[in-house]
């Protein structure tokens, strides 16, 4: 990346401003953001379908929680939801269906800016109406959808782009950079607090925490109780996960360690997904990690797909 | 323009960073005070997260068993979540979160009476709504719920068990009460199952 602003070096404050401007306002390739959009859209499609399957229980007045009780639990009036107006099961199902359609459109890149906003509104409405049913997947989707809605996420790999070819559309842009930076910084915050929270627990220091996850029957989708006879392996897996989470916020930035930290994200999140039945959460976190994958690497990997759908932007050489 | 965007970025970053500093406990008074002006942004954009995944320690799992008496005197039973019936897995997980989140407020049955009395104000409104939903969904007359904390065995216990040794520890069961919708007649010839919570009425009436 190159600095977007003329240098004001010479003062400590000027160096800070230069660094701020370079970090946030240097144009970036929108391809990683487009990939985040596709994954986030696909995951939201699936999540919305599952909400829709039991929309009456999640969102109607006769659901798991009555709206007045949810209103009491939430920080109102800020935690709004369009489902508060949905008294009947039919209305709840219709609103869930709107999110589902928007999520499909987002994944495919149809009317992308509008689809992204409706998807975000639909997600926030669902989680604020059904707070007892929410978990990490929803936190992560929220983080991704805010960035996807803020940036040019339909600039490439989208139906919008196929229908209205625009040579300049996938050129590097400041908005693309802002969105990717939002995900990157947010992801660092997530891992940092997740890691620091674990430091309060003895089992993470003792290296036995992963056993607690493996032996929990309610979560289990893969029987890992054979780990009982492998205490050192449990120690190694626990401590490496803990170290990776705590160090992520600092060591994901240097080129020297970025590959290692991105590579470790794959077994950590797929492992949680496969063993604990939270594959959607694992995939959402991996989609967030895409924000750290350099665009030129992604362009090399996706060259056949991109050459068919795009022209020849100047930055692709 | 760049200044305006920068100000918006600072506000957004504050809304991302302050909530996990302010909760869950332990949290500083400073962080909780800093959260106050950010509440509109945090609430509107769904940013109020602690990110304490499996922290401080991965704990035992929980489920809620319910037994419903139908108007014709028959009985129906169920589980939240139900590994057999709740499919796809994401639906199971959404329902699993109900028992996990309610469990966070429910003290064990052997907790001091004062602790149990105080915590009731936290968990009972949630349980009442769950009971009301079940009665509405299945058309029952009354429903009794109990929380099970599933025993988390130590590795040595699993090894001993595989070798035919001693049994593992027991699950911990906590009664959550019996509930009926307002206007529902008592069932003739049935006695309401009492919960084991001292001082609790045998049946709570729900206004839905």
The fraction of residues assigned to DSSP E strands of chain B is 15-25%
Computed Rg of chain B: 22 Å
Largest sheet of chain B: 5 strands, mixed
Continuous helix count of chain A: 16
Mean pLDDT of chain A: 93
Question: Mean pLDDT across all residues of chain B, rounded?
Answer: 89
Write down the oligomeric state: heterodimer
The major pleated sheet of chain A works out as: none
SSE inventory with pairings:
The complex is a heterodimer of chains A (317) and B (208).
Chain A: H1 12-25, H2 31-53, H3 55-59, H4 67-73, H5 89-108, H6 112-129, H7 136-150, H8 159-163, H9 174-198, H10 202-206, H11 209-214, H12 231-251, H13 255-276, H14 279-289, H15 295-301, H16 303-309
Helix pairs in contact in A: 2-5, 2-6, 2-7, 2-14, 5-6, 6-7, 7-9, 7-14, 9-12, 12-13, 13-14
Chain B: H1 2-22, H2 29-35, H3 39-44, E1 62-70, E2 75-80, H4 89-103, H5 113-138, E3 140-149, H6 155-162, E4 172-181, E5 204-206
Parallel strand pairs in B: 4-5
Antiparallel strand pairs in B: 1-2, 1-3, 3-4
What does this structure look like?
The complex is a heterodimer of chains A (317) and B (208). Chain A is mainly α and 317 residues long. Chain A has one domain (28-316). Helices cover 67% and strands 0% of the residues of chain A. Chain A contains 16 helices and no strands. Mean pLDDT of chain A is 93; it is low at 311-317. Chain B folds into two domains: 2-44, no CATH class; 62-206, no CATH class. Helix content of chain B is 40%, strand content 18%. Chain B has helices at residues 2-22, 29-35, 39-44, 89-103, 113-138, 155-162, and strands at 62-70, 75-80, 140-149, 172-181, 204-206. A five-stranded mixed beta sheet of chain B has the order 2-1-3-4-5, covered by helices on one side. In chain B, a hairpin with a 4-residue loop joins strand 1 and strand 2 (75-80). The longest helix of chain B has 26 residues, at 113-138. Mean pLDDT of chain B is 89; it is low at 186-201. At the A-B interface, helix 1, helix 2, helix 6, helix 7 and helix 9 of A face helix 1, helix 3, helix 4, helix 5 and helix 6 of B.
């Amino acid at each position: 990346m190159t600095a977007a602003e003329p240098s004001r070096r010479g003062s400590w404050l000027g160096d800070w401003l230069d660094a701020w401007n370079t970090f946030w306002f240097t144009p970036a390739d929108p391809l990683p953001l487009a990939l985040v959009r596709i994954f986030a859209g696909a995951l939201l499609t699936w999540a919305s379908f599952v909400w829709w399957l039991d929309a009456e229980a999640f969102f109607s007045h006769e659901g798991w929680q009555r709206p007045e009780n949810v209103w009491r639990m939430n920080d109102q009036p800020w935690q709004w939801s369009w489902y508060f107006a949905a008294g009947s099961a039919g209305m709840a199902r219709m609103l869930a269906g709107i999110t589902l359609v928007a999520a499909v459109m987002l994944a495919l890149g149809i009317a992308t800016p509008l689809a992204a906003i409706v998807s975000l509104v639909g997600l926030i409405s669902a989680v604020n109406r059904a707070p007892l049913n929410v978990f990490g997947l929803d936190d992560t989707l929220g983080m991704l959808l805010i960035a996807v809605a803020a940036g040019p996420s339909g600039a490439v790999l989208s139906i919008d782009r196929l229908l209205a070819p625009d040579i300049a559309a996938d050129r590097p842009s400041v908005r693309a950079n802002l969105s990717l930076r939002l995900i990157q910084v947010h992801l660092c915050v997530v891992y940092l607090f997740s890691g620091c929270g674990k430091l309060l627990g003895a089992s993470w220091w003792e290296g036995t925490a992963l056993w607690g996850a493996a032996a929990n029957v309610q979560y289990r989708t893969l029987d890992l109780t054979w780990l009982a006879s492998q205490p050192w392996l449990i120690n190694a897996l626990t401590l490496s996960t803990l170290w990776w989470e705590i160090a992520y916020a600092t060591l994901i930035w240097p080129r020297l360690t970025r590959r290692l930290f991105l590579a470790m994200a794959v077994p950590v999140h797929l492992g949680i997904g496969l063993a604990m039945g939270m594959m959607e959460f694992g995939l959402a976190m991996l989609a967030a990690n895409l924000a750290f994958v350099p665009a030129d690497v992604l362009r090399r990997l996706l060259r056949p797909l991109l050459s068919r759908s795009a022209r020849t932007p100047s930055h692709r050489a | 323009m760049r200044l305006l965007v920068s100000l918006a970025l600072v506000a957004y970053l504050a809304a991302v960073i302050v909530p996990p500093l302010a909760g869950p406990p332990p949290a500083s008074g400073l962080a909780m005070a800093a959260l106050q002006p950010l509440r509109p942004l945090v609430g509107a954009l769904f940013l109020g997260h602690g990110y304490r995944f499996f922290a401080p320690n991965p704990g035992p799992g929980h489920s809620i068993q319910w037994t419903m008496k139908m108007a014709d005197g028959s009985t129906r039973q169920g589980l939240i979540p139900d590994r057999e019936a709740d499919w796809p897995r994401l639906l199971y997980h959404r329902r699993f979160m109900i028992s996990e989140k309610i469990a966070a407020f429910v003290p064990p049955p052997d907790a001091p009476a004062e602790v149990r009395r105080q915590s009731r104000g936290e968990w009972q409104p949630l349980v009442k709504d769950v009971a009301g939903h079940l009665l509405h969904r299945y058309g029952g007359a009354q429903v009794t719920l109990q929380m099970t904390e599933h025993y988390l065995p130590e590795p040595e216990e699993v090894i001993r068990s595989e070798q035919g040794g001693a049994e593992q520890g027991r699950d911990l069961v906590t009664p959550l009460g019996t509930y009926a919708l307002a206007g529902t007649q008592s069932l003739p010839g049935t006695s309401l199952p009492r919960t084991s919570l001292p001082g609790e009425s045998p049946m709570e009436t729900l206004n839905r």
